[in-house]
Amino acid sequence: MAKHVGYFPELKRNWWLKNRYFTLYMVREATVLPLVFFIACLLAGLYSLLQGQQSFQGWLQFMQNPITIVINLLALVASLFHAATFFTLFPRVMPLRVGGKAIPAKWIILGQWFGVLLVMVLFAWVFGRGV
After folding, report:
1. 63: closest CA among 37, 24, 26, 83?
2. Overall pTM surpassing 0.90 (yes/no)
3. Which of 9, 23, 83, 117 has the smallest number of CB atoms closer than 10 Å to its CB?
4. How much is the pLDDT for 2?
């Protein structure tokens, strides 16, 4: 098998900063970093809950640390940004049709945000009743 020989321009490390589209793409992909921390915190909390009261109290103290709170707030902002970009792209990638007629993109996007709001209200109702 012959080796492919062609022109491959050298890309510098900051190639993605030169185009707004690629910059937003990279920022969107970077939203996973604070979300990984958030998920690790939740898993650590579940594990500490299984270990007993003293372990769980240690986890609660860790969660009250200002740095932990800031990173988790960053994770919230990152997840909302990720959702907003996903919701905006969804109608382009998968246009919905009802009766052969296309549903306007803004309705699809509003429907997705309505779903987010509905889930938030449901969680507040379910978990707020025990308080």
Report:
1. 37
2. no
3. 9
4. 64
